[in-house]
Amino acid sequence: MNALAPTPAAARSTHRSAAASVDPALLAKYDGLRVPRYTSYPTAPHFTPAVDADVYGGWLEALDPRRSGSLYLHIPFCHQMCWYCGCHTKIVARYAPIAEYLGHLRREIAMVADRIPGRLGVRHIHFGGGTPTMMAPEDVGPLFDLLRARFDVAADAELAIEIDPRTLTADMAAALGRAGVNRASLGVQDFDPTVQAAINRVQPRETTERALDWLRDAGITNVNLDLMYGLPHQSVDSVARSAEIALEMAPDRLSVFGYAHVPWMKTHQKKIDESVLADTLGRWEQFAAIADTLGAAGYSAIGLDHFARPGDELAVQQQEGRLGRNFQGYTTDDADALLGFGASSIGALPQGYVQNAVPFDQYASAVEAGRLPTAKGIALTDDDRMRRDLIMRLMCDLSVDVGAIAQAHGHDVGLFDADLADLADLVADGVATIDGRRVHVPESARPLMRIVAARFDTHLASGAGRHSRAV
């Protein structure tokens, strides 16, 4: 059997994932804890209006264009609301709002580029949403042309886009190929028709396969698929079968996300029947079944929730200790500056983080007035930068030498000794081990790594209730 071929159900039990070996008592103990996903540090709930358009403008003007950069463009439109969705998006039936938004996006790109003293070098461009492919095919090329005109985009840059296979057309796939897109992330979530109906996302297997054929015909061969667990009506067997179907499509990477049921924040989630959602143990049994299936097929576990072929750059960087994490999840992007464009997008500069206005009207009004649409952010302290490095390595490597981190930032090797003492209960529970000043999350506790990272977060107490559950 090919090492990356689908694994028969009878053989799945030969590969035991980290999730499968977690003690159910620990899951019950830590269920309900609110901890960040640590796609940044400090995390977004700690952003404030003190970092506004003027502050961001000053940061851009101080940016050395010789530093490496990456770009994120948010296209916040969908044709239909998926009831599990937690993203900032808007449902539209006409193209006019999208065309208008793209006009604002182009103006923002020009404003930001004008504030940087030179053409910033760019090696990564990521389009997220919403559904970026809600753009018309004829609008794709000019937008990429603008990015290449205003930034020094490397010839071998990774140009990635998120795709809803239900709305992708052959013309759009061809337009993406002509624009140089070389990586696509397709939302799948689950292949079971009952689950799809329960989340208002009916997407037959043939729809996903057709989208993949169009993309590969257009030369876009680097593909990752998104799967979810914890959705209504899912079971251990059903999610394992969805993972097997996904493997038959030979993706390079897979992301496996847990559904966060927060109907008090996302009112459309009230349409989901809570009685058919798994409990904490059931959710992790589902994750374990997916991880078992992918692991048995030869995919490497990457951090908290990603999987990749062993030769994929994501897996290579993890092996070499160079893996990164940002607002798009685990990434090979190590740029010094991430510029975010569009409503709600987040950027990261050497000085700190910035986020654009979330409401469309506020975003549009600022751009139309010639102002950067920055709504909030946070300036980094030296302590923030040091703890960010520590948490990043823990989230990416499951291990970090806190003494080495302290020394790298000009402090005594024992700076974090009090933090290490605070891990005593986690060590007793088997969630962490400590060897000298190296903190390690055992493979059996991989799903609980965020709990360990949170112990080094000095901002957490003021925003804990606004984060997702730890389990």
UniProtKB/TrEMBL annotation:
S-adenosyl-L-methionine 1 binds at Y72, G129, E162, I346. Its main location: cytoplasm. GO terms for molecular function: 4 iron, 4 sulfur cluster binding; coproporphyrinogen dehydrogenase activity; coproporphyrinogen oxidase activity; metal ion binding. Pathway: Porphyrin-containing compound metabolism; protoporphyrin-IX biosynthesis; protoporphyrinogen-IX from coproporphyrinogen-III (AdoMet route): step 1/1. It comes from the Bacteria. It is found in: Cytoplasm. Keywords: 4Fe-4S, Cytoplasm, Iron, Iron-sulfur, Metal-binding, Oxidoreductase, Porphyrin biosynthesis, S-adenosyl-L-methionine. It is an enzyme of class 1 (oxidoreductase). S-adenosyl-L-methionine 2 binds at Y84, C85, G86, G130, T131, Q189, R201, D226, A260. Pfam families: HemN_C, Radical_SAM. CDD domains: Radical_SAM (cd01335). Binds 1 [4Fe-4S] cluster. The cluster is coordinated with 3 cysteines and an exchangeable S-adenosyl-L-methionine. It catalyses: coproporphyrinogen III + 2 S-adenosyl-L-methionine = protoporphyrinogen IX + 2 5'-deoxyadenosine + 2 L-methionine + 2 CO2. Monomer. Belongs to the anaerobic coproporphyrinogen-III oxidase family. This is Coproporphyrinogen-III oxidase. It comes from Azospirillum griseum. The gene is hemN.
